[in-house]
């Protein structure tokens, strides 16, 4: 079972992709064809089903012109937790109050 925040995020992503498809006046059939997936798979993606491959989500993002955001999700330069851990290793006293 997925943690609630993870399930919620997948559900929101699926809903957002569904809205994007509908705003572009794409039917399930036409969007599924462009994504090279079946209609049931597209439906699962739009429901945020965790069994759907990340490649399918990536294809949908590409088709709506939002693929660039996928690579930014885990950008190491924006990973504040890792940065704080590195700073603590370098100087534990200096970062004590940053928590």
Automatic annotation (TrEMBL):
Question: Which CDD domains is this protein grouped with?
Answer: HTH_XRE
Question: What is the name of the protein in this document?
Answer: Uncharacterized protein
Domain of life of the organism in this record?
Bacteria
* InterPro entries associated with the record: Cro/C1-type_HTH, Lambda_DNA-bd_dom_sf
Task: Cite a single GO MF annotation.
Answer: DNA binding
């Amino acid at each position: 079972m997925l943690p609630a925040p993870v399930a919620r995020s997948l559900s929101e992503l699926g809903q957002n992709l569904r809205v994007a498809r509908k705003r572009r006046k794409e039917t399930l059939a036409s969007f599924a064809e462009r994504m090279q997936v079946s209609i049931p798979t597209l439906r699962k993606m739009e429901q945020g089903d965790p069994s759907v491959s990340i490649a399918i989500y990536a294809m949908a993002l590409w088709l709506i012109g939002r693929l660039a955001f996928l690579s930014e999700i885990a950008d190491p330069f924006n990973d504040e937790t890792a940065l704080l851990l590195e700073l603590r290793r370098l100087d534990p006293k200096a970062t004590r109050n940053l928590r």
